[in-house]
Amino acid sequence: MAATLPDPDRIWTAGLVIIGDEILSGRTHDKNIAQIASWLQVQGIRLSEVRVVPDVEARIVAAVNEMRAAYDYLFTTGGIGPTHDDITVDAVAAALGVAVIVHPQAHAILEAYYADKGGLNEGRLRMARAPEGAELIPNRRSGAPGLKIGNVYVMAGVPSITAGMLDALTGQLEGGKPLISRTLGGFIPESEVAALLREVEKAHANCQIGSYPFFREGKVGANFVIRSTDEGELAQCTDALSAGLSELGYDCTPGGI
Amino acid sequence: MAATLPDPDRIWTAGLVIIGDEILSGRTHDKNIAQIASWLQVQGIRLSEVRVVPDVEARIVAAVNEMRAAYDYLFTTGGIGPTHDDITVDAVAAALGVAVIVHPQAHAILEAYYADKGGLNEGRLRMARAPEGAELIPNRRSGAPGLKIGNVYVMAGVPSITAGMLDALTGQLEGGKPLISRTLGGFIPESEVAALLREVEKAHANCQIGSYPFFREGKVGANFVIRSTDEGELAQCTDALSAGLSELGYDCTPGGI
Questions:
Q1: pLDDT band at B3, cuts 50/70/90?
Q2: N or C: at which end does chain B have fewer Cβ atoms within 10 angstroms?
Q3: Residues of A in contact with B216 (CB under 8 A)
Q4: Does residue B132 share a domain with residue B73?
């Protein structure tokens, strides 16, 4: 009998739904994409898609249902506070076809947190609501917890609170080999080295090379990011690119500029 | 015979597809969402959805086709440079079912731009490629133009270049009444005033109130953003909220804190 062994090369994926009119209006600059993307990398999980949707239940439901089916994990940020525009719990419950309940543990946490701050009121009680069957994600910062139900992780919108929730989840999610990267950067016009980049990538099957141009100090330049799950192949590919750039007469700085 | 008049209350919408492994890896912090969202507001167009997708043609094609059908305008950023990972032109052409051609005007622009920089090469020629039928969006910064085809606007990924392309498009896109906003902010726990926010919003049908909490100087606070297309109703709603906060004993600062 052949036992089913886990695939060490399996790629684990995640989607992210950012719920927030304030992002779509341009008022607030999003910080959660980069924060969650970086955290997922360390967990060996690749962020495969992000959607930013408005505070409209049907839009949240559609995004949650498409993306929780498409990826191993789905994260949401935003809309779990005490005010009328915080509708994420209702939307996630609707997406999963479960009821919204008052979560006893969340209720107890909030009761303790607000004991010396005027006690619970209608708005604060909203933050004890959860889709039936959800577990809590601790939030040491402000009392109100995040939620996990199935493969859906419901997080805060305020980046510092999200950071605390990610901290609580560190090491809890199964992932694969992390994608590691090295960077070479310089005042190199990418249009001068496009052929080299393509050839070096082609010669190293398990590596991808990304080219990220910039304008700085009145000069064009680029950072070339080499990514792989294999440390050895990553080093070989990086060396080959560095040598190739040198042959073309360009200095590059390991780590990027 | 009744003539068909344009609807002055029509809401014009846009979607945005951000094409970039560098955003999904957490390496680069996106700046284009806020930049494009703010610009669209001034044009009287609402950004209704953003998707961040990887540099994978099938994923770009799917996002472009879903979103160009769902919204009046679709913007893309990223993937129009000279390197092998710049595949946006091919993906947009595939989405629209048209061929990729060398655009004569783009070719001429690039030839002139690179005349004293070593001339055109294979990588630089990639930036003259366009979906058949596309018009150019000027880019005074680096030569390589953006593209407009149907309701799809293909923009650069580097934010300063995107800014130049937006500038070239200012006043060119039909929009509706801009959504205007006022902000009241203070060290006010939103959970203390949730009921007030809901009641004031309910009493002003053409206004929405968003509540955006923060932690600062060790204290909780929030900015309340009131949005409307009508200046008079916006002022009334803002005054009502300000008076309500005052009744509850909270000072608030117009413009937010």
A1: low
A2: N
A3: none
A4: yes
